[in-house]
Amino acid sequence: MDPGGLLDACAFPPAGAAADLAVSGGPDSVGLALLALEVGLTVTLHHVDHHARPDSGGDADFVRALGGRLGVTVVVHDVSVPSGPNFEARARAARRAVLPAGALTGHTMDDLAETVLLNVLRGAGLDGLSPMVGDPTKPLLGVRRAALARYVAGHGVEARRDPTNVDPRYRRNRLRHEVLPLLCGVAERDVVPLLARLARLAAEDRRWLEDLAEADQGLALAEADVTELRGWPRARLARWLRARLARADELGEVHPPSEAEVDRAIAVVDGLAVATELSGGRRLARRARHLALEDRSTTLADHE
């Protein structure tokens, strides 16, 4: 049933546990369902129909049929995500809103490598180099996409293919189909395991730093004494400020401050500036020996 030894590379909950699975109908999520059943989980398949393509109903029908074949419950969630800018983020937020908490997804090692590269292009630091690692909702990070597709085909299942996965308008697709093959050619080896290893090592370092900074997490921005903060190593201060100055957008996505914003915030702590403007209409100011984060958009509206 598992000729490639895929189960050894998975990190599923123990046999007998109940699990909700996010199943799009593509080979990765179908493989997730097949492997979850093989390991002995009691599964419910959840399919989110964004109605983003004319044939999206076919995906829902496929997942229903798959559930019938496997003898498991299927729940289809209908959401409406209008086309337009930031579609991927809006679709992701819509999925998260309807899927059960802790639903397992079919992200593979290849997805991990792509996400590391995407985050590098965005200028990420240590946290961005270790995405998804240790996330219990992603049990297939040790599995390669091609091996998973062969496993699905070996079960006689012809998974659905989403044409948007080859659309070059999406940056991830260009990384997948252009950049990663080029990197493999330059390195003369498969770089996906190397990027996955980088993510795991970065995650270990990040966890160690988080343990070191555990006491800092309870220190609120307004409670901190800037004279004490000035004595911190810059890396510690920057990490603390990034956590305090992160903000959630209208879709619930959390965005850390940029490097330039952190630099300006440190200048406020060091007494080189009285205040600085931040994204989202916010302002960080120093009041005597303490910091204050103000919502400038609300303040300005109150004075109009």
How is this structure best described in words?
- Helices cover 44% and strands 13% of the residues.
- The chain has 11 helices and 8 strands.
- A 3-stranded parallel sheet has the order 1-2-3, with helices on one face.
- Strand 7 (282-287) and strand 8 form a beta hairpin.
- Helix 4 packs across helix 6 (171-187) and helix 9 (234-245) packs across helix 10 (259-269).
- The longest helix is centred in the middle third of the chain and has 21 residues, at 192-212.
- The model is unreliable at 299-304 (pLDDT under 50).
Short description:
By secondary structure, this protein is α/β, with parallel strands linked by helices.
Question: What's the arrangement of secondary structure elements?
Answer:
Elements: E1 18-22, H1 27-38, E2 42-49, H2 56-70, E3 73-78, H3 87-98, H4 109-121, H5 145-154, H6 171-187, H7 192-212, H8 226-229, H9 234-245, E4 247-248, E5 254-255, H10 259-269, E6 275-278, E7 282-287, E8 290-295, H11 296-302
